[in-house]
Amino acid sequence: NYLVQIPSFRRDCTREIDIVEELIRGYGYDQIPETICSVSMNQEHFNTHMPLDNQVKNLLLGMGYHEAYNFSFMNQESVKKFNLFSQDKILTIKNPLNKEFDVLRTGLFASLSQNFILNQDRGHFDVFLFEIGKTFWMENPTHKTITEKKKLGILASGLLKPKNWATSLQKVDFYNVKGVVEDLFLALKKGENLEFQRGEIAFLHPGKTALIFNNKKPIGFIGEIHPDILIEYQTKESIVYAEIDFEALQETKS
Questions:
Q1: Among 109, 111, 106, 110, which residue's Cα sits nearest to residue 148?
Q2: pLDDT at residue 192 is higher than 90
Q3: Which residues are CB-contacts of 21 (< 8 A; sequence separation ≥ 6)?
Q4: Where do the DSSP E strands lie in the chain?
Q5: What is d(CA 74, CA 96) in angstroms, rounded to the nearest whole number?
Q6: What is the 3-state secondary structure (H, E, C) of 26-72?
Q7: CA 183 to mean position of chain CA atoms
């Protein structure tokens, strides 16, 4: 045992380890032999597989997109405008909170388009959004059979990169978002049999719309928004939108 007296001017020495440090400093760090500490490793038994939702979110966030959260119920006019089915398949809420939330959405664009408008009203014209959410429709109006499906919506508009002296002013187009969809499927190891075929969707630009197939099965669509809707939104920027059946994406083998 040693009795050590600390000088009054060394107020930084308050613990035993402080004395040890001073002794080692005087003795010389190079005089101390190197040793490797042994660490015991115990294998934990837990599932390390990340849910597909989180994988998709992380990939899209890494591509510069922002996640949107919206209600599943909306106003009837918006849903009818972007409805992919016949009007009798729209589900009406019997006791809505107000007229702005009187039906359930059949797709995600009605919600994401409202997000776009809010951003534009606040002066944000470079908008990159995605949402993973539920959609609903009446599969069989006669028998009142309701279908509920999770979908992935991707919306992009504006400049690909912020304006500065080193970058050209390249605006988002159909092929940029098509590339995002392809990169997403490849990263998930589900893109070997991905195909795009020309198609028609009522609210998308004729001639700039494609249906998405994987393993020959339809899983979604992509296209630029119809010019008439852009005029209604009072924007000169093109909007590109893609919607994918998330459940079909889950079922696709890696």
A1: 106
A2: no
A3: none
A4: 66-67, 73-74, 103-104, 127-140, 145-157, 194-198, 204-214, 217-225, 239-245
A5: 10
A6: HHCHHHCCCCCCCCCCCCCCCCCCCCHHHHHHHHHHHCCCEECCCCC
A7: 13
Asked if residue 254 has pLDDT above 80, the reply is no
Q: Nearest Cα to 111, choosing from 92, 86, 136?
A: 136
List C-alpha distances in Å: 225 to 99, 155, 199, 244.
Answer: 26, 10, 14, 16
Residue pointed to by tokens 């979110």: 57
Q: Are 219 and 244 in contact (CB under 8 A)?
A: yes
- Please give the Cα distance from 96 to 99 (Å, whole number): 7
- Angle (CA) 131-136-224 rounded to 5° is 50
- The pTM score is 0.78
Q: Which amino acid is at 211?
A: L
